Here is the input.
Amino acid sequence: MNQLIPPFDFQRVVLDPWTTSLDTYGWMALMAFLVMATCGLIGNYLILRRMALVGDAISHSVLPGLAVAYLITDELSLPVMMLGALGAGLLTTVLIEFIHTRSRIKSDAAIGITFCTLFAFGVVLINVFASRVHLDADCVLYGELSYLSRGGDEVAPRPVLIMGGVGLAVAVLIAVFYKELLVSSFDAMLAASLGFAPKFIHLALMAVLSIVIVSAFESVGAILVIAALILPGATAQLLSTRLPVCLWLSVGHAALSAVLGLHLAIWLVCSIAGAVVVSGTGLFVLAWLFGPEGLVVRWHRRAKPLPA
Amino acid sequence: MNLRHGLRAAPFALSVVFPCLFFLAPVLQAARIGDLTETNVLEQATRFFTFQDASLRIALIGCILLGLNCGLLGSFVVVRRLSLVGDTLSHAVLPGIALGFLWNMSKDPVAILIGATVAGALAMLTVTAITRTTRLKEDAAMGLVLSSFYAVGICLLTMFQRLPTGQKSGLDKFLFGQAAAMNGEEVAVLGVTALLSLGFIVVCWRGLVTLSFHREFGESIGLPMGGLHHMVMLLTAFGVVTAMQAVGVVLVSAMLIIPAATAYLLTDRMHRLIIYAAVLGVLTAALGAFCSFLGNNLPTGPFMVLAGAAFFTVAFLVSPKHGWLTRLWRQRSLRVRTGREDTLKAMYRVLEERDWSSEGVTLLELAHWRRETLEEVQARANEVKRAGLVTAEEDGATLHFTPEGLQTAQAIVRNHRLWELYLTNVMQYGSDHVHEDAEKIEHVLGEDLVRQLERRLEFPETDPHGKKIPALRGPDPPAETPAVASGYRP
Here is the structure.
């Protein structure tokens, strides 16, 4: 057990990342924050639209999209990667819809069948063309936040720049199409009667989701990205019922869990992506217990006799 | 508009992608093995089918058992719309597996099974607790639980990798699955689990079916629905954990869903569903194991899933009852039959208007009656000629009924008029509102229903519009068409 949990060394765990080794850990924390924040912003809408598990499906099926993109262009360029993810994401959405409208298979089974098959295809591609596809299985499962190095003439490491760009784009899109997203998430009928084309908004959201997932993919892997999508939004929605407040809260959740996760990972010497998610879960549990509608308030209310 | 286009393209995408997924797999693999030697695939295949290796035999038995178990339990999971519960379970048991491993630092299947079951139960309880006490819906709760439990598991696993024993623990096999890595003890655990599920299903069959289709009814007659539900969940957790060795964490839920969903497309009866799902599960698992055995150290899980997806695609397209192509074909043939019957009916009406004074119906008259162009009527005429319901004179412009054709026409007109009469006399419709409805129903009324209508209407002679209803045909139809035609002259 002592071997497993190293002693808590304040200097090493808390101070060093922000002083002596800022150049490595700073970028990691920033990257973790960007991933959690970008996913969290779009995740708010997924939760409202009850599509959390579609997010799950797309996060798995981005893998074959990436693998095929690698095979077509041997060296992965950004647009090809994005296109691959976009194709995979839209294919997933269309396949799920297709299976569930053209047969008696229910939507939950259709989701499961589609993403498992696509993911399996991706894994086979990676294994068979291991020499040409530079994605290893570990990266798919845990993600790799550790290798962020800055080229000589770059402002920031490339993944951080990409993630930052995508995050900014998502924020701008949400700001511009705020009204459309709001109405179609809460009342698809009203959105349709106002002329917002809810189906188009749905597909567009799926497309943006695929782009976000693929840019976060290499950092957190296929499964932890689901946590990044759901945790910030879910935590925020336990604390507030106003959508704008929720969006800001989920960014705050992202920042906190990135920093806490970094320290946790340095202390326990484990996967950083995993640790970020674990601390995000910790924050969720805190919100669940102590939020305005949390368990503690409920118990308290139940214990107190009703005013006469 | 774009979306509709997308959906129309989807069938093609699906019918191309799924088979490609499957057929590509062996080809891709061959490409890699081809790098080594040409005969390797064949050699491996013969080794597979002659069952020479003891380890291979064990792995294969393991796969068959896990396919059986997953098929049995998956049926209940899919029917009850709990498909994604399997996914949640399979990810959420990861920390349990890690802790079970920590117990005595070895891959002890029993310790791992206990750890994983505890983690799985905890995960399902958390999902319930979140949906009961917060505003979050079930999908968000499941996604949240599966990914955060998984994250804890990943942290634990990466911590173990620092330990001296961790590197060779083989825990990484849990992530994508390696059937060949199974040992006798694990297969024994699989066997016990499969037996447990089988026994449980046989003993509690009635309760389980009630649970699957009408839980409230079961509760109202005092069956222990809650207990059965938890038992199914527990066995599913067992199934998932034991299958994980061969299929891997990420894809094990597919083994629950895909064979059962395939069976769901093949039958409507629960007992058949379970049998089909179990058989398909076994086939899927064995085929997956075979494919992965062909290559060198290929993960088993993805191949099993692709094999399952291939079976599913076939069932999805051509299942006799619920297949997509089957249904399209059925709709098409219904459309063709309706078209033929409409042509025959039009001919009958033309003759009737003429008081049966002559026998041939010209295309021009038909076109007049149907308010269609000559080309359209020509196509109709060709269609009924091909079906042997009508013959044409040499010039091709005048049509005569064959005996079957006349019978069909009479039956359709009878259906139409009986239905109109039923609607006016029994259902009290206005006689000017009944035609549209009868136009549709005339093609689908069966023999029995027609008899019943006749009895109900006391063998009527005329319809609400005063037209004669063609009488039921006698036991032997007259051979000569003209005779028949004149026989029905009013």
In short: Chain B touches chain A through 78 residues (CB under 8 Å). The first strand of chain B starts at residue 361 and ends at 362. The radius of gyration of chain B is 32 Å.
